[in-house]
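Q: Hi! First time doing this. I have a protein sequence and I read that you can turn it into a structure. Is that right? Here it is:
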Amino acid sequence: MAEKKRYSDEELEEFRAIINEKLALAYRDYNEMMRQLMNADGNDVDDTSPTYKVLEEGSTTQSKEELVQLASRQQKFIQGLEAAIVRIENKTYGIDRITGELIPKERLRAVPHATLSVASKIALKKS
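A: Yes, that's right. Below is the predicted 3D structure, encoded as structure tokens:
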């Protein structure tokens, strides 16, 4: 029997469902981070209170910087998931971009935006 070159349409739909679920959660988390950064949920007096709490302000600034980093990572994750949806539509999803072989289903279920098998990723890091 010839080796499979791509996942079946049924398998691709299974992966699409996994990715859509992760996308919904990722968008929710990203939007929550952006609300926090823009102080949209805040009814506090941070923006009107006197600025005599220098240490607290430093802590707030650091927290916002960390939140910006998290939001940036989340945005990159969302882009990876959206690219995976495009690969599903093109029927190229789950194909290792180095070897051209199928990435194991277990890996795709764990990391649905993966474009490399574990072996390819390790080999890429070594080179």
